[in-house]
Amino acid sequence: MKVRSSVKVMCDGCNVVRRKGRVYVVCSKNPKHKQVCYLVVCAILTVYLF
């Protein structure tokens, strides 16, 4: 799991998920694409983007 300040979708299998105030990218095709964003700013930005 990669910890990043901004998470990005890398392929078609990636999905953006919000859990417990964190933003995750979970990929069904490639498990190496898993990412998490702990920052509050990242959680606020995804509300407007998605």
TrEMBL record:
One of its GO terms (biological process) is translation. One of its GO terms (molecular function) is structural constituent of ribosome. Pfam families: Ribosomal_L36. It comes from the Eukaryota. Keywords: Ribonucleoprotein, Ribosomal protein. GO terms for cellular component: ribonucleoprotein complex; ribosome. InterPro entries: Ribosomal_bL36 (IPR000473), Ribosomal_bL36_sp (IPR035977), Ribosomal_LSU_bL36 (IPR052010). Coiled coil: none annotated. Belongs to the bacterial ribosomal protein bL36 family. This is Ribosomal protein. It comes from Hebeloma cylindrosporum.
